[in-house]
Amino acid sequence: MFSSEIPFEHWKLSGFESATAFLFPQIESTHSLMKTKAVAGDIAPGALIVADSQSAGRGRHERTWDSPAGKNLYFNILVPLDGIAPNSFAQITQVTALTFAEVFNTMGEQSNGAPAGDNGERITVKWPNDILFGKSKFCGILAEIVFVPAQSNSAATPASSTASCATTAPQRKPALSLGVGINVNSDPADYAHLGRSVTTLKAIFKKQINREKLLRALVASLERAIGQFKAFGISPWVNAWRKMDQFIGCRGTIVVNNNCTDANRNSGEGSIKKSGCILDMNPDGSLLFKTDDGEVQTVYSADLEI
């Protein structure tokens, strides 16, 4: 994982079940491209899109994700949702965060004999799907449901129904466009202009990282995790999350902004904020939060500020 990497254009990658990987030296956004191609039927579920740099990388609430060339990982996987109930789709991002955090901690054990940092600090998770070292974020996950054309079954279609089928809109099924940005070989100083705590894997491990090998490990681990999630649901992941989340029992602020725009995405103007105590993660992956006025809330969708 810490060996020298080959040039980006020669990376050998695949998506889930050996699906095609598409590599782009520079594009606007892997997330935007994945959505366009998936909806058009140009990319099948399981496919992977990877960019060496992005000119318009996206984070949650349309925030910009800085994407310098040749340093980090920017990719999208089109996750098949067959066999997963719609009310469980959101839990996939939590499974992803926990799975990736475990990969990063394993890297630390291989490199330093410790989970991550020099002093044995672990990489942890923060609800709903952030990955942190201390309080510094280095990995962002963005998920969006897209509806892709279902595979046709024309051979089974009776000839008499051909005319009526010609005027029927093609059937579609949901898939999850899972976008990931990871600060790998960049430096924390590269993000000073953001005004918030940001770190990188190179800064954590004190070593340059082979991005191709790391991405292979992340995709393979996530594919196994999704299979386990289909079989066992979210419960095993909630138990593992509780062990890795350093903020349960701490104070925090829930931020809900359903009308986020370019003008207010950083200021938070128009958002709803409630401070209080993080009590627990519920069995379904939602957050149990007690506000300062004593109300205990179950939070399904929000940002959590520490």
Work out the oligomeric state of the chains in this entry: single chain
Q: How confident overall, as mean pLDDT?
A: 84
Rg for CA atoms? 20 Å
Helix content: 10-25%
Largest sheet: 7 strands, mixed
Helix run count: 6
Task: Write out key terms for the chains shown.
306 residues, alpha+beta, 6 helices
Summarize the structure in words.
The chain has 6 helices and 12 strands. It has helices at 30-40, 91-112, 162-166, 201-205, 211-232, 235-244, and strands at residues 21-24, 48-51, 73-80, 123-126, 130-133, 136-149, 172-182, 251-256, 272-281, 287-291, 296-299, 303-305. A hairpin with a 2-residue loop joins strand 5 (130-133) and strand 6. The longest helix has 22 residues, at 91-112. It starts with 20 loop residues before the first strand and ends with a strand. Residues 152-166 have low confidence and may be disordered.
